[in-house]
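Quick bug: Histidine-specific methyltransferase SAM-dependent domain-containing protein output formatted oddly.
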Amino acid sequence: MTSAIDDMKRDGVAFAMTREGYELPVLDIAHSRFAIREDAETIAALNREIERSERQRRRVPKFIWRLLLKSAAKKSRLARALFDPKGSFLDGMSTYVMKLGGDHLVPPHDTPMDRRFASSPHATFLRMRTQQTARLIADGLRAELSENDKRPLHIVNIAGGPAMDSINALMLLAVSSPELLNRPLTIHVLDMAEPGPYFGRNALHALQDRGRKLAGLDISFEHLAYDWNDTAVLRNLLGSLTGVVAACSEGGLFEYGNDEAIVANLSALKAANVKFVAGSVTRADEARQRLAEGSRVKLILRGIEVFRPLAERAGIGIAEVRSTVWSDQVLLRPF
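Here's what came back:
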């Protein structure tokens, strides 16, 4: 009897080591195991499933709900990360494991309760957020890069964790437009936590192995500790870069940062002539507000209409939006 790990490896899924010393599958949004259809019918079905699960949750008395969560936390690493009362955000590696989906969990995240959380429509939307952001980055790079221009490419990923949006964008280009990647490439992850970038670097190395999508490419992965409330590290980094610079922040700055931090970071990027910024903005409509009720995760529900003037204060406009019930994924360009 083969294991789930053996099945995934036989299907060509790469694995990489975490800082804790266990292997996890590497998310490849174009792989048949992970790709999500983005047609209106699929998204509507996911929306209905989320609404159904939330209606069920609201029917449970709060004291019983707390007892259920306490019990779940004893059986699931994901539950402990999701419902830790001391936390105000879901850490990068727990978010990453959620994105893998229940069918792709491996020890120590493979209990029945872990699989239940990772199989929820909420987790599916997290993966779709990465998928949409990666495609926006890839589209942005495809428009900016030229086969005849070999200048280095730098992707600055703010609060990037393992930077799967950036890595997947490069994989998309490696398949569709490999000639554009014949240059030095660097992913710069600016993140306070270290476990996410640690895994991301290992995932990149696994994808550079012979026969993998990024094999033979000159790609570096750098991590800088960063608090987005103080942009000195970002400005110093940008001042040292030459070539083509793009930026992104999926599930990070635009969802958790305050208004001043967003404007300050975007202003620093604009001043450095960054070509574009891709990221996710939490929606603020009634459905999303209901989903946020009772959550300990302190997302800021702005929506596009509140986010747009913040970006414009920094001299950056919204060029494209791809939406889900969870968040709007945006491509921003300086003007």
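Actually, after a second look the formatting is fine. The chain has a mean pLDDT of 91. Closing.
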